[in-house]
Design goal:
36% of the residues lie in helices and 18% in strands. It has three helices and five strands, in the order E-H-E-H-E-E-E-H. The strands form two sheets. A three-stranded parallel beta sheet has the order 1-2-3. The chain has a two-stranded antiparallel sheet with strand order 4-5.
Length: 101
């Protein structure tokens, strides 16, 4: 079974990535789940961290995004689009972690 690091582009996931590499722990994949509502700085950080990871012999950060969800007569390709189309807040506002799902 491979080891996959879920990278959220925040302080905790960056610390886990750095420490894993410092300890030479094997990582088969580093995955970032794109909600579609991140700031430009987050995407720039992912690109820079990918270069850093590759330079150390580790895999690039793979950005994944779910398939479109049918909402009414439209299709939402991001969590942000779905929330706007449904006129609701994301699940975390209600105590659920749907973007982590």
């Amino acid at each position: 079974m491979g080891i996959i690091l879920s990278y959220g582009a925040g302080t905790n996931s960056k610390a886990i990535l750095c420490e894993s590499i410092r300890r030479s722990e094997p990582l088969d994949a580093i995955v970032f789940s794109n909600t579609g509502a991140e700031t430009p700085e987050i995407y720039a950080d992912i690109a820079a961290t990918t270069e850093w990871s590759i330079a150390r012999g580790y895999p690039p950060i793979t950005v994944v995004q779910r398939a479109g969800a049918i909402v009414g007569d439209g299709v939402a390709h991001t969590l942000e689009q779905e929330c706007l189309m449904r006129k609701q807040l994301p699940g975390i506002a209600y105590g659920f972690k749907s973007c982590s799902d």
